[in-house]
Design a protein that fits this description.
The chain has 16 helices and 14 strands. With 426 residues, the chain is of the alpha/beta class. The chain has 3 domains: 149 residues, Rossmann fold (3-Layer(aba) Sandwich); 204 residues, Nitrogenase molybdenum iron protein domain (Rossmann fold, 3-Layer(aba) Sandwich), CATH 3.40.50; 32 residues, no CATH class. The strands form 3 sheets. It has a 6-stranded parallel β-sheet with strand order 1-11-10-9-12-13, sandwiched between helices. A 5-stranded parallel β-sheet has the order 6-5-4-7-8, sandwiched between helices. A 3-stranded antiparallel β-sheet has the order 2-3-14. Helix 5 runs parallel beside helix 6, helix 7 runs parallel beside helix 8 and helix 15 runs antiparallel to helix 16.
Amino acid sequence: MLYKRLSELGDEEREKLINRGGELADVSETVAAIIRDVKENGDEALRSYTKKFDRADITAIEVSQEEIDEAVDSIDASLLEKLEFAAENIRKFHQAQMPERTWFMELSPGIELGQKFTPLESVGAYVPGGRASYPSTALMTIIPARVAGVKSVVMCTPPGPDGKVNALTLAAARTAGADHVYKIGGVQAVAAMAYGTKSVRPVSKIVGPGNVYVTAAKMQVRDSAEIDFPAGPSEVLIIADDSADAAMAASDLIAQAEHDPNAVSVLVTVSEELAEQVHREVLEQAGRTARAEIVNASLKNAAVLVADSMEECIQFSNDFAPEHLEIMVADPDPVLEDIDNAGSIFVGNYAPVPVGDYASGTNHVLPTAGYAKIYSGLNILHFLKCSSIQKISKEGLMTLRDAVISIAEKEGLMAHAESVRARFRN
């Protein structure tokens, strides 16, 4: 775990922190080969890769209704209630984001301009498996699609070695409203959703996080299906001052580290005393956490940094562009105001990242590896298309006529100019 003054960071250390995620290029050939195989061999390729990577022999690729019923029946009723509680908060937050389906403004007499929002025809939600199950991601990817009005929503997630999908993930898929669930993961799942197979319906857009292979696959299938954004290994950056609680801050770094050995956890603070306390706390908590092996591997990517000013903390955060940003300072609003690049922002000592992961209602599918500089986290607009509308009368066209004709003729598009002139000949 790196522990330094921010001003003393070497070029290589800073480069490693700021420019993470370059491993997409390292797996591109492997990913492309799997995509080609799925396009050419369909379900046969899906079964083969599921056996190879998930150690599961599957015959049926789609999860049956009976399997889903059995999974839901196996879950404690109180846990199902908590799942529904989280789902309702997610639903409310995304309903609040919905734009007016159609709106108009009067530009001038005879000219009305507007927009019409239309849901996508179909969406595929990718829900990771592997080291852990992620029923929360099923809620985060499927519910916004349903709120937006997407007609067909499918979900892909890898099975365990027994060929079954995690029971709570299936319950979440039902709660969220998935139409079909497929027991496939990895690159092969992304390829199947993009191009379709005998068992898997192709979709218009693929959303959801995954490892570097899944992320690279999403980037490669955009000739057929659009994607949300690159979403790889998880990360958090905490901006703190001496009002922050060191044990709380350390626990948030550990919580992020337990996701994946490639997860990144960083704290930047103006308080040297807090930095020392957090550093000690992280090492102590890492020794007793349940997923110690993963945490300790991940902490090789972690850093506790001391800045000379809050402005320096903010600048570093904007350069880092974290997936999750926690602001743990006495006066958070001025800091929040100066944040330009972050996937999701958590303000105050009592707003740890896990509340957004599960139950507050905000979406946890977020851009990582600095992509928060150019992408927004998953939201309702990812599931909508926008068409512009213009209603123009003859009176309105008269005010536009000269500008259109002049510009069209200057571009050499005489028929464009003629289409306007034709409306005033008589």
